[in-house]
Amino acid sequence: MSGPAEVQSVAAVLRGHDRLRRALRHGGLVAGAAAVIAMVVMALLAPHDPYTQNLALRMVNPIWHADGTWQHPLGTDGLGRDYLSRLIYGSRISLLIGFGCVPISGLIGSALGVAAGYFGGQTDLAVVFMITTRLSMLVVLVALAVVGLVGGSLTVVVAVLGLLLWDRFAVVMRAAVQQIRGLEYVAAAEAAGSSTLRILVRSVLPNVLDQLLVVATLKVAQAVLLEAALSFLGLGVQPPAPSWGLMVSEAKEHMFFSPWLITLPGAALFTLVLAINLLGDGLRDVAAPRRER
Description:
Elements: H1 4-25, H2 27-43, H3 83-119, H4 121-135, H5 139-150, H6 154-164, H7 167-181, H8 184-191, H9 196-204, H10 209-232, H11 244-250, H12 260-287
Helix pairs in contact: 1-12, 2-3, 2-12, 3-4, 3-6, 3-7, 3-10, 3-12, 5-6, 7-10, 8-9, 10-11, 10-12, 11-12
């Protein structure tokens, strides 16, 4: 006869196959994952050096114009830099900032939310006060002030956004843990003498991971947009780094005669944010099919 461990192993394999089957059938998840993977692959490839300037080739039109050339398929900017290469390297900056700041904010917010939801009482009051204080501050204004004082760079932007975007993690984790705090399996683990850390790791966290995943994807998309806004205002990633927000800012003076200089990085930013949201929503549905509609 098979032992309990073998039965659990078989059940885990079956659940894994079932989730994989649902993932492959989820159109939004497949489209979002394909777009994100394409962005990651694109970030590793570029036909030219995005920093090389050639004033003799400045403002070359893209290939859909009559005088376009395949040497620079998307044309060049005002300094003669290949626009396709800068667009590709811009995805690298956006992905680094998006996926770099979320672990920081996720760790802070999740720790506060789980502590508030599980312990309650004075701990909950203290965390709610911190959340309220954080929500009273506008992220863009605080980020602008801090980056303006410290100076803009990739590391500074990641640190600042990571320390500012934890509020939704705390709110969602607090509510989710409060819902499962009084359930039978948590009470059984407490009655069995399990330590608080073991209960949180083995009984609480696995049941809130789907909510955590959704919040994380939303925050990745928000971080990408905030970085683009800071770079557009000149307080994010500094030139000559090819940030998409900075590329839009640099192309303002050419928007009426060469609108593709603004349209292309804007479309890339829109595509990346949409893909991340589709990916997160699809993963949520696969992890918790009972919530799928």
